[in-house]
Amino acid sequence: MARTVAREGSSSGIKRPGILVWVVLILVAIVALWPMYWLYITAFTPTQDTVKTPPDLIPIHASLANFSRLFTQAKDYWRWALNSLLISLTITAFHLVFDTMAGYAFAKKRFPGRNFFFWLILSTLMIPSHVTLVPLYVVARQLHLINNILAVILPGTADVFGIFLMRQYIQTLPSELEEAARMDGCTEPGVFWRVIVPLSKPALGALAIFSFVRYWNDFLWPLIVLQKSQHYTLPVGVASLQGEFRTDFGLIFAGAALAALPMIVFFLIFQRYFIEGVRMGAVKG
User: 74 near 241, Cβ under 8 Å?
Assistant: First the structure.
């Protein structure tokens, strides 16, 4: 039986990647992972050795001294991490709900001006985010939200890219499933939650990764509206560790190394849905 399967596999016409392809992929992976490697080896390198020329590719005197100094000097570090986690998870949850609902409406519903409103919303992607900083700050100040994490959460409750992503994916789902659910007596909210959402898990996984990483790394807007140390997010807090006349690279890299861990964990949790979404989108496209 094994020989039969092997013969069928060889006769199917599927070519396996050659050695050159594997070499290229390995080189690309090394280039992509090199910044992450350099981040962590510098975090474990004593400060006096971080500026050594030439640098050590493998830390000779590796220690946890930078992390010890980090928790001593940055006493609000875990508060910053909690703020970032709360903001990122809340905004991600909003995106998964609102972007999916809007994407479903634009993909499956028929209403006057549907295409016009969709392209109108999509055209806002051409507006640089920096243009909206002043109006957003004015609104946040009038609502007395300065130094409040709600000033970071509320502007991010929905996202144009998320609406576009979900609309494009939901369009590929067969409409017969919705009609069958309605014939079985399912209401419109039931069709959305029991049919559309379960079938959209790959796209939802991709959207969750994009949203979480984006707002976990967000720096400029939290820097503007969060002005007290206990309200900082992790990127703003780590940046505040830089001195006016001296940069402690060991301390900063230790803070950045810890800040990168939640993103890695979040990606590992949702990578199956992310990869499946990319694969299915490529096949159906």
Answer: yes
